[in-house]
Amino acid sequence: MNNNGTDPAIGYICSSIAILLFGSNFVPLKKCDTGDGNIAVVPIIKTIGLGLGILIWGSFNALTGWASSRFGWFGMDAEEVPKPLLNYTGAGLSVVSAFIFLFIKSEIPNNTCSVDTTPLITERVINTAQESCPSDSSDSWVEQLSTVHRRLVGCSLAVISGVLYGSTFVPIIYIKDHSKRNDSMFAGASQYDLDYVFAHFSGIFLTSTVYFLAYCVVMKNSPKLYPEAVLPGFLSGVLWAIATCCWFVANHSLSAVVSFPIITAGPGFIAAMWGVFMFKEIQGLKNYLLMMLAFCIIVTGALCTAFSKL
To answer: How far apart are CA 32 and CA 52, in angstroms?
Structure first.
């Protein structure tokens, strides 16, 4: 243990677990129709695709989280590292690695009729042809956009999502920084990040509840809910929650200026591995070579960021 009660080894282990789980948490939902999904993710995927979506929001996530901690944005204390050049290099390589995924092509089947898409709450229709697919997607507002508008909406939502993802730890770090000041209302607050997990998750639950109620009102009490997505969705949430807890520990052990470039860069590669070995979405020598290049850059960036703390 070092002088401030943190252990870098634990931080790197937790970062590795977070990368693995963040890159895998959508796997349980791969074969399920999630309907309208949540506020931004599903519209992003439908407008610009998952690959480009992860590229944009992952890059802005990494830059926002790293820069806000490194330069002291939003009232936080700027975090110093012993080797700032290595830290800058690691953050830059994390973003570069994300851009490489833009050139990796995925082969995704267009047939979406293979899953049960019967909503839990919907109007009963008699004598519906069994061979036809549900018309949920055609009724989506996303499907009514032009190509230019789809890309504009998707990119805008991805940027907003990335900035918000990158700011998710700002309130916690702000409280921790101001707890050291006797004149602050947060004086004496805990310095251990896991003490804030319950409040963090409660905020997510409350926000999701408000959004769902608003969605039900907009849909005139006929939300599109799919029974086959319930248990996979729960499992996905558990994986995400464990990964987030590990991220809290990594922030405490390494500081956000180190953990953010590492944890935001790795999940894209893990997700790509699922696409290669499990779902066969990525094939071909060119795509494999690009993935190896991205992996090398990710590892180099993570090592630069790690060594900047030593």
So the answer is: 21
The distance of Cα 273 from the centroid of its chain, to the nearest Å, equals: 17
Expressed as residue numbers, the domain containing 181 is 8-120+139-307
Q: Is 99 a domain residue? A: yes
Question: Are the C-beta atoms of 139 and 35 separated by less than 8 Å?
Answer: no
Place of tokens 């990964």: 243
Highest mean pLDDT among 140-149, 216-225, 242-251, 277-286: 242-251
- Asked if the structure places residue 131 within a domain, the reply is no
∠6-11-15 over CA atoms, to 5°?
Answer: 160
Q: Helices marked H in 3-128 — which ranges?
A: 8-22, 41-48, 50-71, 84-100
Residues whose CB falls within 8 Å of the CB of residue 298, separated by 6 or more in sequence, listed in order? 93, 94, 97, 265, 266, 269
In a domain, 107, yes or no: yes
User: Residue 134: inside a domain, yes or no?
Assistant: no
Per-residue pLDDT band at 118 (split at 50, 70, 90):
very low
**Separation of alpha carbons 281 and 104, rounded Å:** 10
How many structural domains is the chain composed of? Answer: 1
Measured in whole angstroms, the distance separating CA 48 from the mean position of its chain's CA atoms is 16
Does residue 88 or residue 309 have the better pLDDT?
88
Question: What residues contact 196, with CB distance under 8 A and at least 6 apart?
Answer: 172, 175, 190, 248
3-state secondary structure of 5: coil
pTM comes to 0.77
Question: Which residues, at least 6 apart from 98, have a Cβ–Cβ distance to it below 8 Å?
Answer: 54, 55, 58, 59, 62, 265, 268
177-226 residue pLDDT tens: 999 888 899 999 999 999 999 999 999 999 999 999 998 998 899 888 88
DSSP for residue 189: -
- To 5 degrees, how large is the angle CA 21–CA 17–CA 196? 90
Nearest-CA neighbor of 243 among 8, 55, 15?
15
